[in-house]
Structures are given as structure tokens and as C-alpha cells.
Amino acid sequence: MADYGKPPIALGRFNFDLLEVMYYLYLPVSILGSGIALPPNVQCCMPLIRKALEASPRRYRYVYLSARKGWASPDNPLNRPGWHCDGFGTDDMNYVWWVGPGTRFAVQEFRNISDDHIISQKQFEQQVESTWDMQWPERTLYALDPYVVHATPLIKPPGCMRQFIKISLSDHRYNLENNSHNYLLEYDWALHSRDEIRNDTHRAQLDYVDRGKP
User: Fold this and answer.
1) Alpha helices (H) along the chain
2) What is the pLDDT along the chain (214 residues), one digit of tens a residue?
3) How far is CA 129 from the centre of its chain?
4) For a disulfide at 93, which of 50, 125, 168, 169, Cβ 3.0-4.6 Å?
5) pTM: predicted TM-score of the whole model, two decimal places
6) For domain 9-211, which architecture applies?
């Protein structure tokens, strides 16, 4: 049985700010060992990426960056709502950092979680008992494997400015509609509907092994 409900691992504090209001979603910054290619306005994220690669349990084929800075409100925390695991059904690694209200983590036992990407989210919602009190302050980089159950922060009205960064390491193409395109890298991927299959790793992120080519 999968060990859902693990805590994240703190990797240290990185004291900087995103330079401007922005919205990058799963921007590829390294493809098949290409080296890190960051647009100028997110060069400040390089120390986080280096730390994530250093802490990673192995090398992955792709590195993605999500970076958001903007006004967060009770109905728009700037991130995906609901209790879930990043990289569900894969061995992807994710690393998160924020300024402002923080990600909530459910560190507890979860029972009989389905392998189905939709059913599992409903089960997480039903079984969450409380949130974990983190001992590290904001601007800390956390490592999340696919068994760390978490959700967006609760934003008090009227809202506040929030910054959020996530580095995702994967052997899969993150090829959903509305993902950001990196003009510094050469690639052309077919994109799939986010609403229909965003959690279904067998369809939303086509494995290079199944395709027979990178």
C-alpha cells in the first residue's frame, strides 16, 4: 500500500523575491540534458533549481518551473485547489517555495487510496483530519515526493500578495494546454485538455518510453 501522508523535507531558506507580477505554469527549463535555460525575469530562481537538482534522488529528463506572483484571494489562492499529490502515479519530484500564506500539508495515515486520479482526490478530501504545523518560515524550499498530500493555503479576506515557485523533475512531457512555452528551447509538443486529464499520468503526460522516442 502506498505511503500517502508523508511530510515534505525542508532543504533550506532562500531569501529573494520574484521581480514582477507573473504567471508561469510548468515552463520547461531543461530538456534531455540541455542545461538550464531561464528567461531573464526568473533568473532569480536559479539557486532553487540547483538545490532541487542537488537534492534529487536521481537525474530526470525534464526540469520544469512554475512561478507565480500576484494578488491571492479566498477564492483564488493562485494555485490548484483541493487535497492532492503532485506527480500522482509517477516517481516525479517537486520542490516548492513561497512568500505569504503557505501550502498546507496533511501528515497522517491515509487508507485504501485508489490508483484512479479522480477517486483518489475525493478520498484525500474525505480523510484529511488536520494540517501539519511547519516549523520552517516562508521562503523555505520543500521537497515533495508523490506521497506528500497537500493543498493550497487558506487566504483571509480581502486577500494579499503571494509568491509561489515550484520546480518539477520528471521523465515525462508536461503537455497540458496553458502550460508555458520557453522560447529559449526548441521543442514542439502536442497539448492535451487540462480539464479532462490533468491528473491522469497515462494520458496527460506521455511517457517517452511509451512513445518510443524523446
Assistant:
1) 46-55, 117-127, 194-197, 201-204, 208-211
2) 479 999 999 999 999 999 999 999 999 999 998 999 999 999 999 999 999 999 999 999 999 999 999 999 999 998 888 999 999 999 999 999 999 999 999 999 999 999 998 899 999 999 999 888 877 889 999 999 999 999 999 999 999 999 999 999 999 999 988 999 999 999 998 888 876 554 444 343 433 333 333 3
3) 23
4) 169
5) 0.90
6) Sandwich (2.60)
